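Readers of this paper often ask what the protein records in our data store actually look like. Such a record has a labelled line for the sequence and another for the backbone structure tokens. Nothing more is needed to write down the fold, since each code stands for a local backbone conformation. The record that follows is passed on verbatim for readers who wish to inspect the format.
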Amino acid sequence: MYRNSLFLIFFSLMIVSCNTTGNKLMVDVYETSASGNKLTKVSGFTPEKNSSIIRLDPHQKFQKITGFGGSFTEASASLLNRLSKDKRDTVIQAYFSEKGANYSLTRTHMNSCDFSLSQYSYSPVEDDIHLEHFTIKEDQEDLIPMIKDALKVSKDGFKIIASPWTAAPWMKDNNAWVGGKLLPKYYDTWALFFSKYINAYKKEGIDIWGFTVENEPLGNNSNWESMHFSPDEMTNFVQNHLGPKLEKDTHQVKILGFDQNREDLKEWVDSMYQIEASSNYFDGTAIHWYASTYEVYAKELLYAHNKAPSKYLIQTEACIDSQIPVWKDDAWYWRKEATDWGFDWAQEKDKHLHPKYAPVNRYARDIIGCLNNWVDGWVDWNMVLDTQGGPNWFKNWCIAPVIVDPKKDEVYFTPLYYTMAHFSKYIRPDATVIGLENSDIELKVTAAENTDGSIAVVVFNEGTTQKSFKLSLGENESTITISAQAIQTILINTI
């Protein structure tokens, strides 16, 4: 009888213990912070009074993720070719290996762009309407080797979006690299250009996943390579020339329209998706972030999604522009000292959209805001730049997540690299953004469920004080502390 009583007590204690463990949400937490963490695994959190609550709802499902990543540019590729093999491999591994950021969605330019070393076209011969002299030789020294090296270390591979900044001057009404419009008599030639590009890159062992029709069709204040389209002009080109040509040549690639700032989305998606004949050729819409350093343009993103719920909505370009990189000073990337083009150039009525800002804050807030407003892919601009913010022919300086000094063979991974990795490494292609409730409006939060059942929750605290929150999934919860000025990815294995 005594032994039976002991057994019952022991059994009861086991049940209590199991139930206690079962209510504990098991998580792995990775943090990057102004205090020095760099995608560092953290644990041992002490519960605090008045912790806020983040409640996950996997039953509430939104868009599927296409991917996260950066852009292959001639500027980045040429810099890698000037580094030692060891340092070059370090950068490639950091971006594309499973141990690194594991980028899954990328972009590159067709013909030259502002982050090229010179101005060039794959169709250099005037009036070559059949593009018999088409050549990608300009890409074979720097750009293509970088892409091939990335493919070698990427276990799952990655998607490539290709974008033209301009056609060759001879195809345009102003016969210039900058500004002007594509002459209608060359619409079919320009459509052929895209088809030839696919074939040329395929011969190099590189598959192109998709195109944007034109980078920044509204122009760039006549600074560097550009070619203008109105919404209806682009729709006409895709519906009657580009789409049919790619279809005829049996190219299975995605066509993304627009490819400029979110504030102008409505006019473009209204044109792209107005009738079935055009909508069938557009696979989605591409957007940039330069209209504001803090505004996500949620209303415009929702409008674009509702206009075409089954289509892609991909951020194809973002960078800290008009700014020379700060070398090996992590703290600077967390301070509100950076400026962008709008700080000096914007009209008076728009200047409030471009205050001084902290680079990390801008990246973290924007990516989270995009994911919470139907965006399914997010692509950074140059992966690598030098200490001047180049090289490029226009001297249009920017910042990249990785800065290098080829003369000294040095590499600097800025806090922006780790910020990008919080998303790209843990939110994988085909993950689904899920619902959540967040009781602390000062914390920016998003969450996605991966195809393996794991859930990645990204939390950003831009405030100057540490915060504590309870993360809840069903009946299970865990208390987590996030440092001041920090971004966390919380990985939940639900299996």
In short: The first strand starts at residue 27 and ends at 33. The chain has two domains: 25-62+433-492, 66-426. Residues 66-426 form a domain with the TIM Barrel fold (CATH 3.20.20.80). Confidence is low (pLDDT under 50) at residues 1-21.
